[in-house]
Design a protein that fits this description.
The protein has ten helices and no strands. By secondary structure, it is an all-alpha fold.
Length: 184
Amino acid sequence: MNSAGHPSAVRSRNEFAKALLSLMEKYPYEEITVKQIVLETDLVRKTFYRNFTSKDDVLFYITRRALSDYFSVINSGEGDVLDNIFRFADKNRKFLLLLDKHNMMHVALQCMNEYLPSLRDSSLSSENPFTQLFDGLDSDYLIALNIGAVWNVISLWVHRGMKDDPQHVKETIREYIERIGKIK
């Protein structure tokens, strides 16, 4: 994939991303072709391959872009972690529902497992609530624990159509964490 941050390259990648999402609303993912993605845009096949290697690459681009926004919010230390997680899911509602519709929630999990540990090594701020929690511990396991737990909760919420009240889900999680703290 072309890593240039040139505005025209970014626009092209975003157009292909928008085209793929549009096609995912109408067709099974496995039936979507690069040709269809290109035809949904005003761009040419050569531009597609200058930016992506496959339709899966486009899907990973969309996911990484969303995760980058999420990480920025978490890393800033602003707000409650669970609130931020549900805001991320709500902001990306359409995309997450499409992933669920196509039984592809594992794509986001895979991206998180690859992307978030690399961010920890390069840009974890002191405001990030996990900085103190991870201090002196093997953060690889803790990141895996957090990603797995959070992603399974979000996946269930999305699979239920995102209809359950997020406040109820957050209260359930908080109560459970409190109970864990009381176990000796």
